[in-house]
Design a protein that fits this description.
The complex is a heterodimer of chains A (about 450) and B (about 220).
Chain A (H helix, E strand, L loop, with lengths): L3 H10 L5 H18 L14 H18 L1 E3 L4 E3 L3 H9 L4 E4 L6 E4 L11 E3 L8 H12 L6 E3 L6 E2 L2 E2 L5 H20 L7 E2 L24 E4 L5 E2 L1 H13 L3 E5 L2 E2 L6 H17 L4 E4 L2 E2 L8 H17 L3 E8 L6 H14 L5 E7 L10 H13 L5 H15 L14 H4 E2 L4 E2 L1 H17 L5
Parallel strand pairs in A: 1-11, 5-6, 5-17, 6-9, 10-12, 12-14, 13-15, 14-16, 16-17
Antiparallel strand pairs in A: 1-2, 3-4, 7-8, 18-19
Chain B lengths: L1 H15 L3 H13 L4 H21 L5 H24 L8 E7 L7 H12 L2 E5 L6 H10 L4 E5 L7 H12 L7 E5 L5 H7 L3 E3 L2 H9 L4
Parallel strand pairs in B: 1-2, 1-3, 3-4, 4-5
Chain lengths: ~450, ~220
């Protein structure tokens, strides 16, 4: 298996390429691969049930990563991999690992298609804008949700003391320290001091200053990285990787292929999604996150994304040992029934397809703290319930749910939702009556549709 | 006149087919047949590329097709340009735009879409790429006599740079020389108002609408 040092060297010595031209080259290649492997999108299908199709998508994605590799934006060079290196990388993937510490240690594991084990829940503010005044309390409420296995991305600290944070500034470094310190304080207050925290602070190199075993993010806390669309890495990502791999932190990497972008439609984008996962493995990642993003809707619960999520996760689950998860971002916002319909549809699409779960989050949060721990609970409950049904039944329910929100999928038309403070009593950290009622109503409707919730 | 319509249709088809060579050949045929260059531009290429832009907005076509159509349009317009200039018509009749993704941000797909759509809509575009320092936007805008500066930022941390540009323009006392449009996932109308930009685009289609309707 390639070492990170070798990856870093290739990013300095690989063949030079121009980003735009490489994007268009990817477009041409995936068009050819879709034909070669006879891959087609059926707009009536929300959850793929064709194993052979999933396997062909895997083969196409593997071909793509072998031809293109990853692209280092800053050095403008391709990081290429041989077939042998890719096979060795995939063979060396860990199917499970532990994160966090003590009684709160989480076992993070791969799932098969239609696996009856519960999905691992990565839940939290998911880097929505979180105000510093509410940072600890909001994360405490998330950490208090027992179905959350790992606290996910405690929130963007966009401002500190009313001043917007400039990347690479001293303020940014200080914010990263607070990010680590306050996340640790939150899990401690929630009574889960060993809960793993998936961290990605301030989006700049300064974020490494959030690392501190005593008061900040620990080496047992996974660190999140994002490939830039399509199949690109930058110096900040490689530098963070170098640091976190050296301290032994688990690596969580997202690939967010854009439906409508260089991959074209959902077929080409699915091929890029698989290639992104294999590329993430080559970078040394332990968790492969898919964000089935749509260029027009800017969210992940539209019909194409539902199909894409299911087929990419099945491709990866059936053909590798990698640990899969899928992010769930919606048009409707917390505090609305549409939010529940949307996250449930994507959960039903990907959990029977071998995925764990990340989210949920509104694609366009309105202002600060536009997330809800109680909705994350329902999200996790739907995820657990989805292990009791097969893909065919999941397809039926996901389709019914999709019908309920498809006409309000444009962000401007979607329900505005509420901030945390309007859904919770911030003193007791308990949902208010209206929010409980929404939860109960959502749960009841989902049961009526056939989701086998407890 | 039937011959003229046939040539104009050939020009339109070359854009839809994203065929650069055919676009250039059709433009040459148009001039040889005595079609007014502005007519060739408007009725031959511009309508077709606008239709491609709309098709992309509806996702009837995807980014690669749009980019290739825009390239075909550029190739065809390059043939018409001398004739347009001879008649005192500027091919970049809609405006001159300096655009890029701000410093610290390497995301380029959204910006690339806007670039393709702007070119489609008759703008002369100077694409500075990604991770562009703010002073570079201003120096290139001054060099190219641009009237529009477009700033893309995908991260809520990097959109602060959009504010920096406005402040720098004010400091240099050249704020009124440019229409400043901002865009990117975290950018909202409220942010546009807060920093004093002239417009914002939720997506490429909206960006073109904002620029086409500008009065500045």
């Amino acid at each position: 298996m390639l070492s990170f040092l070798e990856i870093a060297k290739r990013s300095e010595t690989g063949p030079m390429a121009i980003a735009d031209e490489l994007g268009m080259k990817i477009a041409g290649i995936v068009t050819g691969l879709a034909k070669k492997y006879d891959i087609a999108y059926d707009p009536e299908v929300r959850v793929n049930t064709d194993d052979d199709l999933a396997d062909r998508v895997w083969q196409a994605g593997r071909d793509l990563i072998l031809e293109i590799g990853l692209y280092s934006i800053n050095s403008r060079r391709q990081i290429l991999f041989s077939e042998r290196e890719v096979d060795e990388g995939l063979a060396a993937v860990r199917p499970e690992f532990t994160a966090g510490e003590g009684l709160d240690t989480a076992l993070v594991y791969r799932r098969d298609v239609e696996d009856n084990r519960p999905p691992v829940i990565f839940g939290g503010p998911f880097n929505a804008d979180v105000h510093q005044d509410m940072f600890v309390r909001l994360n405490e409420a998330f950490a208090g949700e027992p179905l959350i296995d790992l606290l996910l991305l405690p929130g963007y600290l966009k401002e500190l003391d009313g001043i917007m944070i400039r990347p690479n500034s001293g303020l940014s470094t200080r914010a990263a320290m607070f990010y680590g310190r306050w996340a640790r304080e939150a899990i401690s207050r929630a009574g889960r001091p060993g809960l793993p925290i998936v961290g990605h602070a301030v989006m700049a190199l300064n974020e490494v200053s959030s690392a501190n075993e005593e008061w900040g993010l620990r080496s047992c806390d996974p660190r999140a990285f994002a490939l830039i669309s399509e199949l690109q890495v930058d110096d900040v990502t490689l530098t963070r990787l170098a640091h976190y791999q050296a301290i032994g932190a688990p690596i969580y990497t997202s690939a967010t292929p854009l439906i409508g972008g260089y991959g074209g439609g959902p077929v080409g984008t699915a091929i890029i999604g698989v290639a992104g996962h294999i590329g993430s493995v080559m970078l040394g990642s332990h968790v492969m996150h898919l964000g089935p993003q749509h260029i027009k809707y800017k969210q992940q619960t539209n019909a194409m994304s539902l199909w894409l999520g299911s087929v990419v996760k099945q491709a990866a689950a059936r053909n590798s040992k990698m640990i899969n998860t899928t992010s769930v971002t919606t048009s409707g916002r917390p505090g609305s029934m549409q939010y529940i319909y949307e996250f449930s549809a994507l959960v039903l699409s990907v959990v029977p397809s071998g995925s764990n779960l990340t989210g949920p989050r509104p694609a366009e949060p309105l202002g600060w703290n536009n997330v809800s721990p109680l909705m994350c609970r329902l999200f996790a409950e739907v995820g657990h319930a989805a292990t009791k049904i097969d893909r065919k039944e999941a397809n039926r329910i996901a389709d019914t749910l999709h019908e309920k929100y498809k006409d309000k999928i444009e962000l401007k038309d979607a329900p505005k939702g509420l901030p945390f403070e309007k859904m919770y009593d911030v003193n007791t950290l308990q949902p208010n009556d209206e929010h409980w009622a929404l939860y109960e109503k959502g749960k009841s409707e989902l049961k009526e549709l056939g989701v086998p919730l407890e | 006149m039937a011959e003229h319509e046939e040539i104009l249709e050939r020009m339109r088809a070359s854009i839809v087919a994203a065929d650069e060579t055919e676009a250039m050949a059709a433009a040459e045929a148009a001039l040889a047949a005595g079609i007014e260059p502005l007519t060739a531009l408007e009725e031959g290429f511009a309508g077709a590329i606008r239709a491609q832009g709309e098709a992309f907005s509806n996702l009837d076509i995807f980014l690669p097709e749009l980019v290739l159509s825009a390239k075909a349009m550029q190739a065809g317009v390059s043939v018409l340009e001398p004739a347009l200039k001879a008649k005192g018509i500027d091919a970049a009749r809609s405006g001159v735009v300096v655009i890029g993704t701000v410093e610290g941000d390497l995301h380029d797909i959204g910006k690339n879409i806007v670039v393709a759509m702007l070119r489609s809509a008759g703008y002369e575009v100077h694409d500075l790429g990604t991770d562009v320092p703010i002073p570079n936007f201003i120096s290139v805008a001054e060099q190219t006599k641009a009237d529009i500066i477009g700033l893309s930022a995908l991260l809520s941390t990097t959109m602060l740079r959009q504010k920096d540009l406005i402040e720098l323009l004010n400091l240099k006392k050249i704020r009124e020389d440019f229409f400043v449009i901002v865009g990117g996932a975290p950018v909202t109308e409220a942010w546009m108002n807060e920093i004093g930009a002239d417009g914002y685009g939720l997506d490429a289609h909206m960006a073109i609408e904002v620029l086409d309707s500008r009065t500045k």
